[in-house]
Amino acid sequence: MVDAATAAAVAPVAAPLLDAAGLKALGAAIAIAGTGIASGWAEKDIGSAAIGAMAENEALFGKGLILTVIPETIVIFGLVVALLINSA
Amino acid sequence: MRLLERLRGKKPSQSDKKKKGNSNYAYAVTRVRAMKSKLLPKESYPRLLNMGIDEITRFIQESEYKNDVDELAMKYSGGDLAEHALNRNLALTYDKLGRITSGELNYLITAYLKRYEIWNIKTLLRGKLYNASVEDLLEFLIAAGQFTYTFLSELASKATYQEIVEALRKTEYYPVLQQFDGTNLAHIENELDKVYYSNLFEAIGEPKSKDRKLIAKFVKLEVDVKNLSNLFRLKRAGVEQSDEIMPLMIEGGLELKPEKLAPLPYDDFVNSLQKTQYWDAISSFIDQETASLTALEGRLIRYYLESATTYSHASPISIVPVMDYIIHKNNEVNNLRIIFRGKEAGLDDNLIKDQLVVI
After folding, report:
1. Does the domain formed by B102-205 have CATH 1.20.1690?
2. Which CATH architecture group holds A19-87?
3. Which of A49, B44, B351, B359 is the most exposed place for a label (fewest CB within 10 A)?
4. Residue A46's closest chain B neighbor by CA?
5. pLDDT of B237-250, one tens digit each?
6. Which ipTM value was assigned to this complex?
């Protein structure tokens, strides 16, 4: 009996896999990952179109660059949400 | 892999057609649209009409044709220089389209541009039949299809048409060319056109997606325009027998049914066109006595070009804008050629102007 009680006291208590902090971190990760993939996907076509236009007319570099990074806002929203989750 | 298949003349397998991601439409279409914006604006044609040949050469030397004029200026001069420069530019532009596209898009464009192979074969056969010199022949060859300029020059330097036909033994046109005996050139030319269109329709396949449907419609419209111009020519010449007209018609049009239109006399033929979409474009040019056939054909081509632009707006990220560019570029080269040759022959400016299709 004594032995068993001592053993129970000494054995480390297994922490639950997903506590509140873990869920928050996971939520933030999903927010970043999802929006990251989404902006990458959106930028793929715009980027290749911009390159196509630039290959013909170099003056379009500025416009192409701006249009290409517009979907970047999506990942910024994701970043904001992730920070809000973490600070809440 | 695709290149190998193309060299072997194989059609892409079903799985290739599904690989849409390969085509990279966004890149190709934007690039082509940028190229289209560099075509000569319509305001420049009245100016060109007021210039002499040397001035026009200088004008196009300052435009997109600079490299071509520069490179060929050592060898040719005057109208010949312009002709060669225009052909070279057209060939290089279409070659570029082949290079900047991939996948399904590239496959369809290659199928579409085979019309220049036919054009070249026709030119070579005609030239040999009428004993044109090699230099004259070279002037009219456009190395835009799968045949390279070197291959075409070799063909041009052959002594007889039989040798040319033999040299084309491995191409898909050989079965038709075999029937050529030196007297039936018109028949062979029609047959080549038919082979081209049936191959093209086969390449497009059964259209399911929206852009495939549009490209099918686009080619069908072209067939209609060709058939309609031919019908008008024949009718005005008084040909009304179906068995004379039908061999000249291309199958697969959009709205017109040549088999129904062929036997009609001119007035009935014109009346039956009233229900078609072409009526608005041609209605003021149909009077047999006064209106010229050239003006009518010009209107039809114009209608075709405008429809292509409309289609390309309906389906912006697809093959249609590329097709639209191909025909507009061709039209620009044709216009410039008309101006050059017209000036060279000393034609009246108004006469030249009537021949132009300006959009």
Report:
1. yes
2. Up-down Bundle (1.20)
3. B351
4. B26
5. 887 788 888 888 88
6. 0.74
